[in-house]
Amino acid sequence: MTMKERKILGYLPNETPPLGKMLLLGFQHVLTMFPATVFCALFTGFHVSTVLFVAGMATIVALLLSKWGIGKFIPLFYGSSFSYLTAYLAITNAEWGVPASDELISTMQAGILVTGVINIIIGLIIKAVGKEAIDKVLPPVITGSVAAIIGFGLGFAALGMAEANWVVAIITLVVTIMFSVYLRGKGFIGMLPILLGAIVGYLISIPFGEVSLASVGAASWFVVPHITFPSFSSAMVVTAIFSISIMAIATIPESTAHLYQISLYVDRYAEAIGEEPYELDKHIGFNLILDGIGDFVNGLFGSTAGTNYGENNSLMAITLNYSGPVLIAAGAISMLLGFIGKLEALVGTVPLAVSGGLAIYLFGVIGMQGIALMVENKVSLFNPRNLAVGAIIMVVGIGGNIGYPGGFLPIPIFQGVFPSGLPAIATAAVLGILVNAVFLIFEPPKAAEI
After folding, report:
1. Within a domain: 7
2. Which of 19, 211, 307, 365 has the fewest Cβ atoms nearer than 10 Å?
3. Is residue 315 domain-resident?
4. Most distant CA atoms of the chain, gap in Å
5. pTM to 2 decimals?
6. What 3-state class would DSSP assign to 307?
7. CA-based angle 409:414:417, to the nearest 5?
8. What is the pLDDT along the chain (450 residues), one digit of tens a residue?
9. What's the number of CA atoms in the CB half-sphere (13 Å) around residue 16?
10. Does residue 4 lie within any of the structural domains?
11. Alpha-carbon distances, residue 268 vs 259, 279, 287, 347 (angstroms)
């Protein structure tokens, strides 16, 4: 069936729109990924221009490899993942909008590189043994609990930013929630509640004297992204590798869920127009390998660890545009934005209180999504086995991250390897995995199962 004969206009992954439409559709993808990806950079001390540039590069690399590897584009956009925020902050103690030193960024890059390697290894294992085997080692009670403590563990940091101006922060929070609820399903504008909330918060901040555009005027139009390379020589490198790479266990189920989601919508559209299904959900392991390669690219050039974005998946479902070439165009546009200095300076003028209002909502949603993951997978919290695993992760992760400086647990016996202490969230994840492993080796009596 030709494009003109289709009653429902859209594009399947291997289809290419005309150039003008492709650029417009690609720019729409960039608008969708922009708020969350830039927020991660500003919040954690990475350079905005670098993160935009490398996110686009990682997306293009993953798309081209998917076409080469399975003959089909897997239409996913790779932006900054929120799952790693606490791990970064534990190392940088970053202030909003202030880039960390090159030494700290290079140290974090070591952890991001290892994250990429872990994803690649797990992807290869899943291709060999199947997803069911991995689910035994990382059941939903672990992945859900880890996602929850990532979000809730950042709660204190969000409130700390809101303290800059509680009125601005609360207004930003409320209007963002209203946008996210009442604009849902209203077309493209419904995909931008965070951006719209940030704009309202920004405008509200002006009468309070919270906005200064002096840095924008001083910035150059053209800049070169601030590229740094990974370093394994810092005293904090083991801490960085441990605390950052272990967070991969939270992004693996997220990435898999996104693949299932996009595969479902692609195949339904293909069926509706009489085309063969793509069956992308058969390539779970390969998709994780692509995730790992994307993170390897991020770690190599100084960007945050990434994930494929559910926001862009939703955009594709709304527009029926699943074109891989369009996403390649989006990646190219993102890379070009990394060279516009005034854009980075303008983003840096967003007041701290506005970011605090957004963070209260965003970090809370991350935590709630962890709970939703357990609900979706029918995790029984009447089962003592699940209670034990979840309890350890929650208390060590949230209590340790909020209760100790930088979120490091001061356990003396590990100070030779971890001079600042054990990172609480990563430690909580490892403890949960170990306790679950004990239950796998020594099966509990059936009487304990509910």
Report:
1. no
2. 19
3. yes
4. 70
5. 0.72
6. strand
7. 110
8. 555 666 667 889 999 888 988 888 888 788 777 767 887 888 788 888 899 999 999 999 999 999 999 999 999 998 887 667 777 877 877 776 678 888 889 999 999 999 999 989 988 988 888 767 777 877 888 878 887 887 788 788 889 889 989 999 999 999 989 988 888 767 656 656 777 888 899 999 999 988 888 877 877 888 888 899 998 888 888 888 888 887 776 677 667 767 877 888 888 888 888 888 898 878 888 989 999 999 999 999 989 888 777 667 767 776 788 899 999 999 999 898 889 888 777 777 778 898 889 888 878 887 887 788 788 778 898 899 999 999 999 999 899 888 887 777 888 776 666 666 777 877 888 899 899 999 999 988 775 555
9. 6
10. no
11. 14, 10, 20, 39
Sign for the CA dihedral angle at 378, 383, 387, 389 comes to: negative
What the block records as the tokens of 316 is 């594709």
State the total domains in the chain: 1
The reply to whether 9 falls in a domain is no
Task: Work out the number of other CB atoms within 10 angstroms of the CB of residue 342.
Answer: 16
Tokens of 397: 């992760």
What is the C-alpha separation between 423 and 247, in angstroms, rounded? 11
Domain that holds residue 306: 19-444
CA distance 155 to 174: 17
Please answer whether residues 172 and 204 qualify as being in contact, where contact means their C-beta atoms are separated by less than 8 angstroms.
yes
- For the chain, the first-to-last Cα distance in angstroms comes to 53
With the C-alpha atoms ordered 296, 300, 306, 312, is the resulting torsion angle positive or negative? Answer: negative
In this structure, the number of other CB atoms found within 10 A of the CB of residue 343 comes to 20
C-alpha angle 257-259-261 in degrees, rounded to nearest 5:
70
Question: Under a CB-based contact definition with an 8 Å cutoff, are residues 445 and 383 in contact?
Answer: no
Please give the distance of CA 131 from its chain centroid, rounded to a whole number: 22
DSSP-assigned states of every residue in 57-88: HHHHHHHHHHHHHHSS-----EEE-GGGHHHH
Which stretch of DSSP H or E encloses residue 308?
strand 306-308
Residue 173 to residue 357: CA distance in whole angstroms: 5
List, in order, residues 6 or more apart from 165 with CB less than 8 Å away. Answer: 205, 208, 210, 351, 352, 353
Task: Name residues whose C-beta falls within 8 Å of residue 242's C-beta, 6 or more positions apart in sequence.
Answer: 111, 418, 422, 423, 426
